[in-house]
Each structure stands twice: as structure tokens, then as C-alpha cells.
Amino acid sequence: MESRLLFRTATEEDLPHIAQLDREVFADVAYPFFVLRQLFDAGFTLVVVDDSERICAYALAVGSGDRGWILALAVAPRRRGAGLGRELMRETLCHLRSLRVREVLLSVEPANASAISLYRSLGFAEKEGTAGPTRNYFGPGEDRLIMSLTL
Question: What pLDDT is attached to residue 2?
């Protein structure tokens, strides 16, 4: 029997589970627990997907003025390919829209074709004024494609 998925705002008790998922998905570039804790305490948006067994996906976002950023989107490998990332992005974008954000930005690894395809299907495009990936965005050898969406 398939478990029900609950999309909700993260609680303090979710933080260790989010950190574990982040390590599972992003390995060496995962957020350290203390950073997730501080972002949570600072009021950043953390939307989780709870499958009644554990947190199986999360999105981290921030909105300031009319601009917002999607800082992370992670889906457990066992849950990929079923549209969960798309639904999580929609929930997160809805939340940013409620904050009166008008433009949402994100960065994505240029080789991550599935993520880029997802973002494009949601209306994101390469940020105006950029020509391909921004070199060394996260440091030497860490290029990222910057994408934006007008809400």
C-alpha cells in the first residue's frame, strides 16, 4: 500500500531528518546541520514532504521584497520520477507568491539535465543577461546555471 504524502511547513523536529536527506542527496555539498538550523530560525521557508515514514523531500526558499530564491530542492532517490519534485516546487512557489515575491531565482548544476528540464517545465528560463553557466559561482570549478521565473 502506497503511503500518503503530506506537504507541510517544516518543524524544528524535522531538522535532523532534513539534514539526513540533504546528505543523502547532495553528499559533499550538503548543508551542515547548523546552517539548516540557522536558516530555519531566521524564517526561511522550508517545505517538506512527509510520507508517514520519514521526510522524503524538501525545498528551502527565501523571499525578500519582490525577489525570492529557491536555495535547495531535494527528493529522496527512492521517490524520484513520480512528479514529487514538481509538486514540491509548486507548493514552494505558491508560498513565495503569498509573500508577494514577483521573481524567483535558482541555481542549478549545468550537467543536471533532469533538474533543468523540471525547472523549464515550470516556466523558469535562463536569467536574462546571462550567457550559459556562471563560472565558479560556488567557488573554483563550481559553475551554476542561474534561472528565473516571473510570478
Answer: 56
